[in-house]
Amino acid sequence: MNTATTVRETQVPTGTVIHTNLPGAHFFDAYTVADPRPNTSALQTWLDVVARTPRWTQHLLAVRNRLVRLVGLKGVGQLHDMHPLASGASPRDARSYRVGDRVGIFLIRHLSDTEVVMGQDDKHLDVQVSLTKHAQAGSSDSPATVVLSTVVHIHNTLGHVYMAIITPFHRRIVQVMLQQLAPSNHGPR
Length: 189
Prior knowledge:
This protein is α+β, with helices and mostly antiparallel strands. It has a seven-stranded antiparallel β-sheet. It is 25% helix and 24% strand. It has helices spanning 42-51, 55-69, 157-179, and strands at 8-9, 27-34, 102-103, 106-111, 115-121, 125-134, 145-154.
């Protein structure tokens, strides 16, 4: 595999909004990959990634939505779902989004050019996902990167059971999503 598309596990980046949500978290992880488009915003990068979500992940999420309703959790839709924005602007344009708008299955909680934090809360657990962009560190040996972090706060036993079941799927889906950033995956849509 080309090193530009290698997804690696990393730490939740310090100095980010998502990092401030780590205290008390029951689960967290972060994955990083080289950023082939460092001049795009964090939210635009997220929109590009979820627009290329593989069909098998869409099927898994659909199954998840059907099953969790049986135990009182929310069916959340799909990562790539488009929702009307409060501004009335096009949901395909990252510049149209504001904090509080829905992007796919999440609500935007923080939005800057370099970090978007999105979340979904339920009575059993609260999930936050962040996509952060990190500039090149001064040399060509150190490319710009994207980090996708997840932080989960669990409220009860059902939340713990849910996370035990979903964690292996979550890890694989995040890795596949970040591989979608590969330059060869940015052809015509």
